[in-house]
Amino acid sequence: MSELLKRIEKLLLTEKAVIAKDGTFVPVKDILYLTSKRGDVLANLAGKKPITLPGNLNAWERLLRGLFVQIHRQYLVALDRIEGTFERFPEEPEEEIRLTRAELRAKDDECEISLRGTEKRFPVTAVYGQKLKKTFGISRFHYLAPENPSDRALRLYGLIDFGWRELYSLDKNDKAAVEAFKAKWDIKLFDKRRMLSYFRLYGANEINTKRVIKNLIYQMWRWIQKGIEEPSDGNIRSLWYKIKGVLAQHSNILGSGDVDTFYSTLQEMVEDQELFRYKDFGFMDMNEPYRVIGKKNPEIILASEKLGHYLFIKKLADAQGVSFICLKGEPAVISMEYFSDDLKEKCGGKPLTVFSISDVDPAGYSIERNLVRGLEKAHQISKVVKLVDVSAFTTEEIGFVRFPVVSYEKKGDQVKPIVPATMGQVTKGRAWFEEEINDERLLTEKDKGGGWKVFTIHGIESDAADRDIIEDRFKAGLQRLAKLNKTAGKAKRKIKT
């Protein structure tokens, strides 16, 4: 419990401020480094004059431990601002220089570092070099490649590209060389001592489970790209079982929540960090049966969020030779990767037109937006056409097909959600109604008394729409598109002549 409290305290400290000698407050997150000069401790901030702090450097090192690290008897630097390292000695000493074993060790423990926010370089002396390497979980400073943005991004994210120099020149067809390389660098073969040397949880003699998972995933991806590891022929869970085996080998780091950590980490690496794609691992797309690339007009897409529309939109798409996809809810990233690549292969760079069938509610509009965003990563979208909206229904029909999305009470500027709705859902629902719908037929209002009113925002299921209307709208949209393309074609021919 005491260790947990210490970690919480460190997290809270980053959002706090320290008091300078003159009584001003200095935010901890703004400090680049602390230095000792003539008995004073100076806090150095980007583009500002140094600020004098009370006490001595040793006291500040204890107070800021975990956020700052001492690299020299006169310097204490912010960990999250370290960008790169530079050797303090020439790579190959001149012939007349002869270094002792102790001097060689010191050479390996010394370097200069750069910090984000200043062009100044800071010396790391041998006394503090070992501690800095342990903090980063590295054995040599050359793992921190200087002035390389890609390497820096990997390091800051906690990744180590094991054996990258050897991997670069490795012949994937030389089985003996590949086996030797894997025996040396395969994380799955590391014993606990080696695991701790690279993946130690800062401030504890424990292995950082999430960092191990991140590096295992990254190494597998690197080796698949090189061709020395076979892509998966299963789903994402098959990768988890490989990683679970490594964690089980170090039984003290296998926890009940590790499967959730694995999935969230993989999602983070693919969708947030964009280091690679799910498709790179060869994972199966479970939604593959519910999408087809059109033979005549592949750049035109008919999409529905509901699996129940599969046979309906397949028939429409096949008749017109266009592409179609049933999303089964929010579009899965892996499905969008495969679908987008298939479209790229057949469309020849043509911009896409999307005809969309989705519910008239916040979730349905979100699904459509995410479909378009997924396609926009590799394609230009010329137009998105909604085939189901409020105009597809009469007022009478809306009265009996609408359903409540969210309810809330309002008095003046005060807004309170009505259970089971949350305030976030109310805010999202109101924004959707005001920005996208603004149709009083989907908003009901009742007096509650005391100046309060109860409002309910309604939605409409796309299944409630007449399919003949959807089909007519789709065909009319195709005709308009054909006319536009014909007009554009004539304009291009005139320009050429």
From TrEMBL:
Domain of life per record: Bacteria
Alphabetical list of InterPro entries matching this protein: LytTR_DNA-bd_dom
Domain HTH LytTR-type: residue ranges: 26-83
GO-annotated molecular function: DNA binding
Protein name as annotated: HTH LytTR-type domain-containing protein
Organism: Candidatus Wallbacteria bacterium HGW-Wallbacteria-1
